[in-house]
From TrEMBL:
The keyword NADP does not apply. The modification 4-aspartylphosphate is found at residue 53. One of its GO terms (cellular component) is protein-DNA complex. This is Two component system response regulator CiaR. Keywords: DNA-binding, Phosphoprotein, Transcription, Transcription regulation, Two-component regulatory system. It comes from Lentilactobacillus farraginis DSM 18382 = JCM 14108. GO terms for molecular function: phosphorelay response regulator activity; transcription cis-regulatory region binding.
Length: 101
């Protein structure tokens, strides 16, 4: 059986650690605390799932998701985890996640 690989991109270190402990029960996890590093890690194309915060240092989550969706080999599922809660924020995230080029 293939082992799952999950990338967690979250700048809140306490939350990232909690996610890593929880998800580490079912998958191998990698954590990044800034957007630039997280984007580069995601481009490796080895992750089965990404947990992505939107408000990150260096590069925000919207830009990361938009960049990934322009790369045909980066179609991994992305779960957006954020404090942003307006309808516009949600719609924008869905639009970026569903982009196909």
């Amino acid at each position: 059986m293939k082992e799952l690989h999950i990338l967690i991109i979250e700048d809140d270190e306490s939350l990232a650690q909690s996610l890593q402990l929880f998800l580490g029960e079912i998958a191998q996890t990698t954590v990044s605390h800034d957007g630039f590093e997280g984007q580069m890690l995601g481009e490796e194309g080895i992750y089965d799932l990404v947990v992505l915060d939107l408000m990150l240092p260096q590069v925000n989550g919207y830009d990361i998701l938009k960049h990934w969706r322009t790369q045909s080999h980066l179609a991994m599922p992305v779960l957006i985890l954020t404090a942003k809660d307006t309808l516009d924020d949600k719609v924008h995230g869905f639009e970026l996640g569903l982009m196909t080029i």
